[in-house]
Amino acid sequence: MERPAWAPRSIDITVPSVARIYDYYLGGSHNFEVDREAARKALDFMPGLPKIMQANRAFLRRAVRFAAAQGITQFLDIGSGIPTFGNVHDIAQGAVPGARVVYVDHDPVAVAHSQAVLDGNPDADVIAADLCKPQHILSSPQLERLIDLNRPVALLLVAILHFVEDADDPYGAVAELRAALAPGSLLVITHASYEGIPLPPERTEGAVDVYKDIRNPLIMRSRDEIARFFEGYDMVEPGLVPMPLWRPESAPQDEDPYAFSGFAGVGRPA
Prior knowledge:
Helix 1 packs across helix 2 (33-45), helix 2 runs antiparallel to helix 9 and helix 3 (49-69) runs parallel beside helix 4 (88-95). The longest helix has 21 residues, at 49-69. Strand 1, helix 4 (88-95) and strand 2 (100-105) form a beta-alpha-beta unit. The chain has 10 helices and 7 strands. By secondary structure, the protein is of the alpha/beta class. 44% of the residues are buried. Strands 3-2-1-4-5-7-6 form a 7-stranded mixed sheet.
């Protein structure tokens, strides 16, 4: 398999990556045949996966604009993935010139691409780190340079927590990150769930098994389990809802049924 010029030498291009599979679903070009093969297997079971990813991105953009309208000028996006059109820094800095954005991902391709995209942008940076090690993120020089934790931050955990198994304590990691945030901050989450998927459970299981096979298990949680990430926070209206129903810019009746899979919400410290 030929290594594309943009692929860091250190990565194994024979192993699929969830960040690159997500990039493929969104129509990106930074993925390898091994990623496309895994994606096609999952699509055989759940052909609406790209629609779910598009609904995720659309919610992310609305949530960033909402945060900017609340006066927040600092954004920490963990599990940011490979940069695609309409990134957090594009939206945030478009709404508030000088807004500061720190991306975090542990996929080397995602980090390398973020570095390339952010080159020359003094108000945005990327950290190679893992959500399960919050202290690495909070004490990183990139975060210390750009983000003042004594002022409100929008913490974005979009389509990331469902890749963290309970054994790795996602609730503890989120609690640690929340504890570092100043009053007036916002917590923004989307999460996969069996609820809302317009398919029989065994078909959905087939797609979930593809992720298990590539050693990136997709952990489907119930609405109540997802709500636990917001413990001690007040939910912004309309609460924890399917992604197209969170403050839509137009009536969402034309949305693809798959877009209503899983949940999205924004909380602020109580």
